[in-house]
Amino acid sequence: MTYIPISPKERDAMLQTVGVKSLDDLFDAIPKNHRFPELDLPPALTEMEAATLLSEMAQTNENVREHMISFLGAGAYNHYVPSVVDHMLRRGEFFTAYTPYQPEISQGTLQAIFEYQSLMTNLTGMEVSNASHYDGATATAEAVNLAYAQFRGKRKKIVMSPTVHPQYREVIRTYSQGMGLEEAGDDVSADLEAGPEALMSLVDDKTMIVVVQYPDFFGRIHDYTKLIEDAHAKGALVCIVANPTALLMLKTPAEMGADIVVGEAQPFGIPLWYGGPYLGFFTTKKSYVHKMAGRLIGETVDARGQRSYVLTLTAREQHIKRERATSNICTNQGLLALAAAVYMSSLGKTGLQQVANLCYQKAHYAASELSKIDGFGLCFTEPFFHEFVLCCPKPASEVNEYLLDNGIFGGYDLGKDYPSLKNHLLVAVTEMNSKQEIDTLVEVLKEME
Amino acid sequence: MATIVEPTIFELSSPGRLGVTMPASDVPETALPPKNLLRSDLPLPELAEVDVVRHYTKLSKFNYSVDDGFYPLGSCTMKYNPKINEDTCRLPGFLYTHPLQPIETVQGNLALMFEMQEWLKEISGFAGVTLQPAAGAHGEFTGVLMMAAYHKARNDTKRTKMLIPDAAHGTNPASVGMLGMSVVTIPSDSRGNVDLKALEAACDDTVVGMMLTNPNTLGMFDENIEKVVNMVKDCGGLMYGDGANLNALLGIVRPGDLGFDVMHFNLHKTFSVPHGGGGPGSGPVGVSQRLVDYLPSPLVGIIEEGDDDLEPLYGFVTPKHSIGRMKAFHGHFGGGLVRAYTYISMHGPDGLKAISQFAVLNANYLQARLRSTYKIPYDRICMHEFVMEGQFEGSDVRALDISKRLMDYKFHPPTNYFPLIVHEALMIEPTETENKDTLDRFADALIAIAEEAKSQPDLLHNAPHSTPFGRMDEVKAARELVLCCWLPENYETLK
To answer: How many CB pairs under 8 A join A and B?
Structure first.
């Protein structure tokens, strides 16, 4: 199969215009000993054959809609995506366009992302949202970059709760390798039952940023107002990593005083897709906008007096500032920001509140029924949203194996990241889990030996 | 007051209007958390589904896209995105698999990822590949982190300088800046190659390495590439290749064979993943043998060997001295890897070579047709793109005016003002998926515009004329910083 629309006759005419005899003559600048390697790759398939091959590969997987009952969350959530979302995404005008560098012919993308920015600021209560980051983990790492730039490297301590997503903490450590940061709090052997107060003693006048998660990795809802007041008294910034579905119901991080609110917006209209691409959102206060990485859309007018939108404050970005830019980020997740905007618009205020309420109700029903089983119980007493930690009578890995044999993904095995939580499962429940599925989980666990 | 062409989704909202609704709860009710933990209101739009569809359909029509027409944006490789990719990446087995599922239940995904690693290694001549990076700039950062880790592991701590040619993409120095290294800019010579004298002067035992785009952003393949690589290696540095321009090299030459140590791929350029109005991209990174132990974790590997009857068991492995994790989970699997895998599987070795042959033919054809009208400062056989000057002697018409006027001829403009070493640069990359008629119409348009620049320059200064929007007031946007909107009823309180 080829997508090259040039006939042999046209090719020859073009070669003549260029002034060479053959296609190979165009490559004289390439060192001869390495020119035209024979690539050892499978022979080309037609479209029909490729469709069959890919379909077979996809069918080798067991998925959470057709084969398995799933209570896996831990940063990626199985939500219903209204049909309208993908229909809008499949418009070639959106998905085959580039970054909107030419605003006269990119107003579709620009206005859609301006709307996405507006939806995210209204959701988090923050003043500014950028046009997105790669995912929740890299958005969190960019929050650390912002703090580093804000204090011009004069403050180098980061205080991070051990109940921030383990992979997010890992990404922050990778990103900050060149900064020489002092890290505190990021200790998985610390007392995991402690609330946000435990972090307060770690915050001092060297601290540039405090990073916490809301609800935290164990699903617990903490009010961070006091922690933020204390951190601000020491001059530090506070970043809250938030779940957007939970924000539909819960007090906003802005009300608690957060300086930066980031997170993973995959729950808003993006399929599980085996982990990506997802959508990192990044919101902050207006006073930090010049230190914020990533693209930003602003409102303006065109030469005809029409309201319109452009990429703005581009002087912050790598193509102008080069090595002095806060980040090298260039691409964002444009199409997925559109997905989130269409998701939020098509469900609207009422539909979104229904999603949040269903998650909350079903998770609490599951928690209540599961904790009635002999040997099982809830580990924490704090309020939770749609994810909770279940203590099991034996290692979570063994519980999961048993559940897998019964067609169930039981939850995330916390022992992988927290040595003291070997017998603990992180269970997520969304609107996609029916009462029947929850009851099946309970019945199967009751029979576990 | 500005005229509103299409209201925002917030302005279209009407309180009480319903869109998609959810089923009633099927479980006994639990009380909500205490009130002090709840939000007081949710200021989001309320619309019917039809309102949403018409709104975003209307917005889409304000866009110009590859499906609309020619998009010769230099260094961006705006090739046609095959429609089959859109179907394969949405197969239920890919869409509905959770990243934390047990590996036994996702062998299809892992086999695809493993083969993708192998294919990219074969295409580029590298010893190892990570699929984790989310975009080109992210891949670059990954590469620079590995270079730093390599020197650190050898206790070679005085290496803090990265050599970067003046024609480089801005992401190169920005990636280096994120690690606190310093940048030494290396000029280009009169043929668009790296200036060897300047390079020699910069090469010493403080060099981390060199980040080289080859073909460079002038569209030139460096004629001294082997010398450049050897000079950097002789002083103990590592060679980074910016893979943004890989569309010129498939089956033509492998960067690994030329001695490069690291290179990122842009699957959204070379391998037809659509650009999506600015992402998501996908930026896997290939490395030479001496860097394989530093790759990000995890990689996909074979956990249990297979045999004639049994498929191998794929799973995750962690390199010995891994720099760590670059993002959550496993990279842009669905939207990036599945599309690119589909594309490569449909090309095979000959098809891939044809892509680069015709990408280079198309660029040279356009260059030949425009040579007598526009100044081409580095004029020789180019690779997949070339750069010309968008200015004429005695005229105040600039590259930007030419670009905007091209919109009236129904073309997307080339990249403007890049690379920085060419005055009023217009960087043109046609890609292999354009036919001769399109290229001829585009060349004719640029020749006609050059004529207009002389006879009626204001036609260019005020362009575009036929698009739904005119030139934007970018100063106003930056000064007023209106970055979001609200529901009409919240406008005053929240603003």
So the answer is: 707
**Residue B342, pLDDT score:** 98
The widest CA-to-CA distance across chain A, in whole angstroms, is 83
The domain boundary, picked from A315, A342, A369, lies at: A342
Angstroms from B393 CA to nearest CA on chain A: 26
**Is the pLDDT assigned to residue A352 strictly greater than 80?**
yes
What is the complex's ipTM, to 2 decimals? 0.97
Q: What is the pLDDT of residues A105-138, one digit of tens each?
A: 999 999 999 999 999 999 999 999 999 999 999 9
Q: Of A45, A349, A387, A425, which to mutate for an interface test with B (greatest number of B Cβ within 10 Å)? A: A349
The first and second tokens of residue B289, run together, are 């043998």
Please report the pLDDT score of residue B273 as a whole number: 96
Q: Which of B4, B33, B331 sits opposite A276 (nearest CB)?
A: B331
- Indicate the pLDDT class of residue B109, thresholds 50, 70 and 90: very high
Can you list the alpha helix ranges (DSSP code H) found in B203-347?
225-234, 267-270, 339-345
Which residue on chain A is closest to B29 by alpha carbon?
A361
Q: Show the tokens assigned to B220.
A: 């030139």
Q: Any idea of the CA torsion for B456, B459, B462, B466, to the nearest 10 degrees? A: 180
> Number of folded domains in chain B?
2
Q: Are the Cβ atoms of B65 and A93 closer than 8 angstroms?
A: yes
Among B111, B462, B480, whose Cβ lies nearest the Cβ of A57?
Answer: B111
Probe site for chain B from A2, A3, A252 (most B CB atoms < 10 A) = A3
By CA distance, what is A86's nearest residue in B?
Answer: B90
By the 8 A CB rule, do A132 and A333 touch? yes
Report DSSP state, residue B337: I
Contact (CB<8Å) B170/A322: yes
Q: What is the pTM of this model?
A: 0.97
Where b means 16+ CB within 10 Å and e means fewer, B324-344 reads bbbbbbbbbbbbbbbbbbbbb
Q: pLDDT digit string (tens) for A321-340?
A: 667 766 676 668 999 999 99
Query: The domain containing residue A132 runs over which residues?
Result: 84-342
User: Does residue B41 fall inside a structural domain?
Assistant: no
Q: Is residue B59 a part of any domain in this protein?
A: no
CA distance A380 to B403: 61
Longest dimension (CA), chain B: 80
Q: Give the three-state DSSP class for A352.
A: helix
Pairing of strands B161-165, B128-130: unpaired
Two structure tokens written together for A374: 């002999």
The answer for B 187-216 residues in CB contact with A (under 8 A) is none
Residue B26 lies in a domain: no
Does residue A204 sit in the same domain as residue A229?
Answer: yes
Give residue B364's domain range.
349-467
Total count of domains within chain A: 2
